[in-house]
Amino acid sequence: MMLVYLDNNATTPLDERVYEAMCPWLKSTYGNPSSVHSFGRKARAAIHQAREQVAALVNAHPSQVIFTSGGTEANNFALKAVSLTPASRIAVSAIEHASVLGPALNLSQQGCQLDKLPVNLQGQVEPIRSLPPETRLVSVMWANNEMGAVQTVAHFSALCRAQGIIFHTDASQAVGKISVDFAASGAHLMSFSGHKFHAPQGVGVLVTDKFNELEPLLHGGGQEKGLRGGTEPVAALVGLGKAAELALQELPQRHQKMLALRNALENAVRPLDGVHIVAEQAARLPNTVMLTVAGFTGETLVMELDRCGIAVSSGSACHSAHAEPSHVLLAMGYTPEQAKSAIRISFSAQNTLTDIEILVQALKKQLDNFRSFAAMQGLMF
């Protein structure tokens, strides 16, 4: 049985070239980057190079790049390192990842007032003209991890800057898939995770406006300008840098290939009874397709496809193990039943048209089996 991996928004396979760049730092080259001897200096130089590579990918200055353990830490850092008072208001979109919604809720429990920005039927955050004067922090993701809708980041950053509000965007699903320009976006803070674009797991980035003042998230060392204490994972950072370099070089080709795969999948499933493409009219990531499938729960369909050797998810990887309906689809106006029927297909440039064909055939088989069962039971489909 051929195995097909179509859950790349959860994590991507490590690029072989990234692995090769990491290998020396995993085996024969070592040294604490804070040490003054030659081993330490070499490690420090490798981290500096990685910082430059990451900065180039998102059009930032290397001094603006803070390394973290991943997107979750970077998002928590962005929300919790900003100076807030109990009288402060914060606003996040209703479709944010749990790693933004979680710290936002935590801040509200500490006294801040939390506002959730609504989205339309296509999953895009509704533009607004102003925010309450007490608002101190706003977070709107660059692109949604479940259905792929790309948000109007520039609108919200401009609005926030005009009102003296700090603006953060979670770009974890956008970096490496579409062009992400931190400088042009106007954001004060931007976070993303390496394993979403073929870097190793366990490493992420917070990009910060050089004029923005943050409180340290981790104390105890002077690393990352004193903002995040702890010895740096050199091998992982070298891998992140290499993945960033490759993503920048290959972005046009990757985008074109992923978009071709998305179009092929959507053209194949659009005629199928009971299958609906979520946010089809929105500007979306080239690699992401979310479907609702009438008569199924997403969890059941994920398991049935897994038996066929096909990996997809029923939404965010952080919640796909639970049978709760997608908060993203609920915010978009879908019913709980519809939201529970959703599956997410996400591919990378390493996938092929054959992978899409295998998925479509397996999906058709599941629908045919369900129709046969429904007919036997006298049920309406």
Describe this structure in words.
The chain is an alpha/beta fold and 381 residues long. It folds into 2 domains: 4-11 and 251-377, Alpha-Beta Complex (Aspartate Aminotransferase, domain 1), CATH 3.90.1150.10; 16-246, Type I PLP-dependent aspartate aminotransferase-like (Major domain) (Aspartate Aminotransferase, domain 2). The protein has 11 helices and 12 strands. The chain has helices spanning 16-27, 38-57, 71-80, 98-109, 153-163, 182-185, 234-269, 298-307, 327-332, 336-340, 353-377, and strands at 4-5, 65-68, 89-93, 113-117, 135-139, 166-170, 189-193, 204-208, 275-277, 288-293, 310-311, 342-346. The protein has a 7-stranded mixed β-sheet with strand order 2-8-7-6-5-3-4, sandwiched between helices. A 3-stranded antiparallel β-sheet has the order 9-10-12. Strands 1-11 form a two-stranded parallel sheet. Helix 1 runs antiparallel to helix 7.
Write the layout of secondary structure elements.
Elements: E1 4-5, H1 16-27, H2 38-57, E2 65-68, H3 71-80, E3 89-93, H4 98-109, E4 113-117, E5 135-139, H5 153-163, E6 166-170, H6 182-185, E7 189-193, E8 204-208, H7 234-269, E9 275-277, E10 288-293, H8 298-307, E11 310-311, H9 327-332, H10 336-340, E12 342-346, H11 353-377
Parallel strand pairs: 1-11, 3-4, 3-5, 5-6, 6-7
Antiparallel strand pairs: 2-8, 7-8, 9-10, 10-12
Helix pairs in contact: 1-7, 2-7, 3-4, 7-11
